[in-house]
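Before relying on records like the one below, remember that each one covers exactly one chain. Contacts with other chains, cofactors or solvent are not represented anywhere in the record.
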Amino acid sequence: MPVGRVAVNGSVPDHTPPPYPPPLAGEGRVGVYVGAMERLRRRKDFLAVAAGASASTPGFVLQERQRDDGGPARVGFTISKRVGRAVERNRVRRQLREIVRLSAASSLRAGSDYVVVGRRAALGIPFIRLTEDFLTALKHLEKRRRGVQRTAGGANSPPSRPTSSGN
């Protein structure tokens, strides 16, 4: 029946789409909306993050730099031409952006900048595996951060050498 017409019995057809079935485990979007994330856009910020800590996975490299302010976490994405042609690079970028968006509320640390560097292998890795790898990389960076804080001047740090005064 064409849209806008009344049926013979006088009823108007309902054109609302049927409800989507819930996603299966590991498929589709998780039912959490995080919203827009703060993005890194300046080259200077990307270079600063590259000098910080990093964690490698088969599909991407996650880099982190702690800022001195307590502002929200900022995220940048880098997918080079080595990953593939534009369609493949965009697919990897979209997947990584979605992974970060879904985990931003619970996993990203405020006052830190992150850069996600996509790899070609991400094209063949299932989305759920990339998500697990992202969470593992964040835990790795957190463990490294705690280790640095613990050894910086703590009881386990080696004794400092006396400085020689000019004779």
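Residues 26-31 have pLDDT under 50 and may be disordered.
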